C-alpha cells in the first residue's frame, strides 16, 4: 500500500506533524492522570466548587479588594458533581489530604497565576507552582490542618483560607486500589505489636490489642457499662474511631476511617444481607463461617488471633487469659462470627437497620437524647448482634423456642451480663488452656442462690420487668436461670471486645454522619433539634438498666451494692479517657460536653476529618433521608446556597458505586449482549474487556485493509494514530485496573521531581481468569502484529508507514513495560518466553529492541520493588527520580 510518489514527502511531513500533535495530546492525558492517586474515567465532568462555605467571604489582595474567588476540586468531587460534605461544613474551602487538589480562579476566563500553599501554623510553603503563571495548579496537602492559598496574577494577589482534612468515604465508593490500601492498613494494626508499631510508624500507632483493651476497660467493667446504653455512647465511639484513624494514618498517611453505610445493604439485599460484598473474603470475610467453631477461616481475615496470655497486658481478660470479656469464657483464640443467635437467624432481625428508620428519626426527633438512644440501639446495635451471633446453649432445650417461639434470644445475653454485674452469675477467675471448655463456664453458685427458687432469683434480679423475656410456655424458670447463669458464647461483635473484629471499625461512621447531618440542619434552622445533654432511656431493654454496682471490698461470694444511678462516663461533665487525639499536641482529656459541643460539632474547626457526603443516602428512595416532599424545602435551600456560591451543580442520581466501580458494567444494559458472546461470557467486566480489544483491533484492521476503500494516506494515518491513542488511554487508565488489578503512573513530588510507580493487588480473588487472559493477550499480541508490519514495511520500502507502525509500537510498548513491571507473574512469563529465544530473535530482527530499551530507560531502569504489607496491598517504593 503506497501513496502516490508526488505526494510522498508532503504526506510524510503532514503525518509527522500530526503524530507530534497526537503525541502531545497523549502526553497531556498521561500527565493529567499522573498524580499520587491517579484516577480516570470514560466520562469526566469538569465541575468545580468554591469549597465548603456556600457564602465565601471575599479574598483579600495586597493591591486592592477583588471579587476573584478560588475553586478547589479533586477527582471524586468532579466525578460525583458534589463538593466534600455537600458544601455543608463551615470551611471557606475544603480539600482532601489524600488526593491531589486542583486550584483555579473563579473569573471568566480564568486568570493565570503563580500559586503558593502556605501552612498557617508555621508559615511554611508546602507547595508552589513556580515558573510561568498557570490557570490551574494541582497540589497535595501534607497533613490535616489550615492553610492559605496565595494566587498571584499579573495585577493582583489574593489569599484564600483552605482547610485540609481527611475525608471519610463509604467503602464501596473507594477505588479497588484505595480499598486495598485501607484494608491493608487495618491489617497492619492487627498484626503489629505496640512497640514494633511505634518504632516503625511513630507514636500515633495503636495496635488492635491496645484499642480492644481500651474498649474492654470501659464496656466490660463490673460496675456498669461506661460506654453504652446512655448519653456517652456517641462521644466514646466517635473518639475511639478517631484514635483508630490516627493509627491507620500513621501506617499510610492517605488513610481515613472510611465508613460502611449498611442501609444500602438493607435496601439491596434485604434478608440476604450476608451476600453483600462487605462479607467477601477479600473485604471483611464471611458473616457466618462454615465451621463448628464459628472462626473466620477464609480470606484476608482468616484466623485473626485474639491476644493470648493477656493478663500482664490487660486487667480485663477471660478465664483462659484471652483478651476478651470476662463472661465470654470461650477458649478458641480467634475472631468468631455467627449469623444465628441461639439458633434464630439474625436474632430475629430481617435485615440491617434501614434508611427509612434514619429518615423517620431525622424528621421526628426533637431531642438529641432520643437520637443517642437510637444510635446506641436500633440504628447500629442489630449489626453487632447479626454479625456476632450467640451459641453454646443446649439446643434440645432452647432450639425450638428461640427459632420459632416468642422467646427473644437477644435479651438473654444482655440480661446475663446484668446478672454478672449484680453478682448472681460468677465466672472462673482462671482456667488453664488444657481445662475442658465445659469445665470453665460461668454459673450461679449455690452460695449465691441459696434456698431461693429460680423464680425468686429472676424476680430479685429484675428479669420480670422484661415480660417477653420470660413469658415462654414450655420453658421452666429453672431452665431460664440455668441458661442465663451459664451465659454461653457470643461472637466478638456481640461483646465488649467488639473492636477485635475488623467489622467494628467502619460501622460507627454512618451513625456519626447522621448525627452531623441533623446538627447542621438544626444550625441552619431547617430542623428544630434540642441538644440539651441527656438520654432517652428504654425501660424494657435488658442492657439499659440504670443501675451501678459497687464492687469495692467485695470478696468471695459477697454481693456488691447495686443502686439506681447514672454510670460514670455518661454524665455531661464526666471526663473521656482519650488524651491522644491530636498528634503532636500536649495530651489532654475532654468532658463529654467539651467534646460534643466544641470538638465534634460539625461547625467546629477542630476535627481533622469530614465525611464525603451528608445528604446522600443511596439506601433511601431518591437517595435522600426522608420522603421527597418532606425534605423538598431542604433540597431547595441547598440548591439556593450552591447557586449563591456561583457553583453549578447538575442534577445527578446518587448511587453506591465508586469512582471506579469494578462492578459497574456487570449489570449495565448495554453490556448484556456481550455476555451472550462466548469471548466475554465469563468476563466480570465485559464492557471493559470489549473496549480493551476494540481500539487496537480497529487500528490493525484500518491499517491492513483501508486500501480496499481509499488511497488517502493522510486519512488512514490520522485514523490509525487516533485509534492507537484511544487504545493507549483505555489500557492505561481503565482496563488494567479493572481486568487485572494493576496500574502504573508517574508521581510528581512537591519539589518537582518525579517517580514512576507500579502497583498491583496481591489479592487476586476478585480477578477473573477470563479477564486476565483477555487483558494479557490483548496487550502482547498486537505488539507482535505491528512488529510483523514493521518487518514488511522495511522489506517493501513503504517508509511512510513507519510513522503509524512506530506510533503503535511505542504506545503498545509503554503499556507492556508498565504492566509487566506491575505484575510479577507477567515478568516471569516474559522472562520464560525470552529464554526460549523466540521473542529475543524476533525483536532483534525487526529492530524493536531499541524502542523497548528507550522506553524502559525513560520509565526507570531500576526494578520497582514491592513490599507486601500484611493484608495484601503492596507498599510502593520509588524506582527512579527524573
Automatic annotation (TrEMBL):
- In this chain the Tyrosinase copper-binding domain maps to 218-392
> What's an example GO BP annotation here?
protein secretion
Q: Name one GO cellular component term.
A: Golgi membrane
Query: Where located?
Result: Membrane
Cross-referenced Pfam families: DUF846, Tyrosinase
Its keywords, alphabetically, are: Membrane, Transmembrane, Transmembrane helix
Query: Which residue spans traverse the membrane?
Result: 709-729, 774-795, 801-820
Q: Which Gene3D superfamilies match?
A: Di-copper center containing domain from catechol oxidase (1.10.1280.10)
Q: Does the keyword Transmembrane helix apply?
A: yes
- Give a GO molecular function annotation for the protein: oxidoreductase activity
Q: Does the keyword Transmembrane apply?
A: yes
Superkingdom as given in the UniProt entry? Eukaryota
Topologically, how does it sit relative to the membrane?
Multi-pass membrane protein
Q: Record's InterPro entries?
A: Di-copper_centre_dom_sf, TVP23-like, Tyrosinase_Cu-bd
PANTHER family, alphabetized = GOLGI APPARATUS MEMBRANE PROTEIN TVP23
The family assignment reads: Belongs to the TVP23 family.
- The protein here is known as Tyrosinase copper-binding domain-containing protein
- Species annotation: Chrysophaeum taylorii
Give the classification, highest ranks.
Eukaryota, Sar, Stramenopiles, Ochrophyta, Pelagophyceae
